[in-house]
Amino acid sequence: MRFQGEKCTLSFGMNFTDKRMLLTGSIWFRRDVVAQLGEPVPNRIPFRLALTEAELDELRRWVSSDAPLPFQLPAPLRHLSRISPQSSNTNTFELELSHEQLPPWWNWDVVFPLTIRLNIHSHEYAYLTNTLSREYWSANLSW
Predict the structure, then answer these.
(1) Distance CA 77, CA 46 (A)
(2) Could you give the CA distance from residue 91 to residue 85 in angstroms, rounded to a whole number?
(3) CB atoms within 10 A of CB 132
(4) Residue 76's closest CA among 105, 56, 34?
(5) DSSP designation for 135
(6) What pLDDT sits at residue 50?
(7) What angle do CA 46, 21, 91 make, to 5 degrees?
């Protein structure tokens, strides 16, 4: 996956709590990108979503389709928009951040709202969409 043209990693996990699916994760920048800044700064954007079964299905359907409207997300994220059609070899998304000020790790053109472009190769995209589908979970988890 690429973050603003730089290689990055999306890591995430899902678990159930109080009739909600807790989706937590981070987008990790490459260490050499962070090192270029010359000061210790976080090298990740963490996120946390508590989703009902219906909300998880909505997210799965949105990610799996060519939906033209953005998907709303909680802070520090604002929403996710699809830029390229799902049928391409690279799926391109724009992730808008809710930051009102420039975070210290930002190393790209500054235009508010801050927007991150994510390019996800087709095999990574397939893994992501499969992970959100109950049929691919290792156990038959129930709500």
Answers:
(1) 9
(2) 7
(3) 21
(4) 105
(5) G
(6) 87
(7) 55
Residues 48 and 143: their CA atoms lie apart, in Å, by 19
| Two tokens, residue 47 | 């996120």
- Least confident interval from 39-43, 74-78, 102-106: 39-43
DSSP state of 70: P
> Can you tell me the distance from the alpha carbon of 121 to that of 88, in angstroms, rounded to the nearest whole number?
9
Residue type, 71: F
Q: Give the pLDDT confidence of 48-97 residue by residue, as tens digits.
A: 888 888 888 898 899 888 888 999 887 778 899 998 877 778 888 998 98
Q: What angle do CA 100, 104, 110 make, to 5 degrees?
A: 55
Amino acid symbol at 86: Q
What type of residue sits at position 94? Answer: E
Whole-number Cα distances in Å, 124 to 68, 79, 91, 142 = 21, 20, 9, 26
Q: What are 110's two structure tokens?
A: 């500054």
What's the one-letter identity of residue 80? L
Residue 23 one-letter amino acid: L
